């Protein structure tokens, strides 16, 4: 849900480690592309809401606006992180993702390895093909 007066900010969860089928918890990193107008970030789970201030975020190197939060979820909702961003203008933005546990590890196959000269410098070019049964 995004309020009409605030443009959507790109947001993304990524796993901070392995997500196992038998793990009691899952850890994530929430990346927000523009944190300049944030007043708070609310992480939701089935049992609680955890509110964090912008000052608790880690700034992303090389970006003047992006930030990240670490977040761990326990229980049944551990594979479905949810967040609501609260902005200075009173609007909010909801974001959620669903993660799946992989039964089979991805396969990586080297399709080619070569040397290439670019601008007088030599580079090693490696091409891989990835096969995955989840994503």
Query: H/E element string?
Result: EEEEEEEEEE
Radius of gyration, CA atoms, in whole angstroms: 19 Å
Q: How big a fraction of the residues is strand?
A: over 45%
| Termini separation | 25 Å
The computed structural class is mainly beta
Strand order of the largest sheet: 1-2-6-5
Taking all residues together, what is the mean pLDDT?
Answer: 89
Major sheet description: 4 strands, antiparallel
Shape: flat
Number of helices: 0
Low-confidence regions? none
Helix share bin = under 10%
Label this structure with key terms:
10 strands, mainly beta, 4-stranded antiparallel β-sheet, 135 residues
Topology:
Blueprint lengths: L10 E5 L9 E8 L5 E7 L4 E4 L5 E2 L7 E8 L7 E6 L4 E5 L10 E12 L2 E11 L4
Antiparallel strand pairs: 1-2, 2-6, 3-4, 3-7, 5-6, 7-8, 9-10
In short:
0% of the residues lie in helices and 50% in strands. With 135 residues, it is an all-beta fold.
Explain this structure to me?
With 135 residues, the chain is mainly β. Helices cover 0% and strands 50% of the residues. The chain has no helices and 10 strands. The strands form 3 sheets. The chain has a 4-stranded antiparallel sheet with strand order 1-2-6-5, with no helix packed on it. Strand 5 and strand 6 (67-74) form a beta hairpin. The chain is flat. The relative contact order is 0.22. The mean pLDDT is 89.
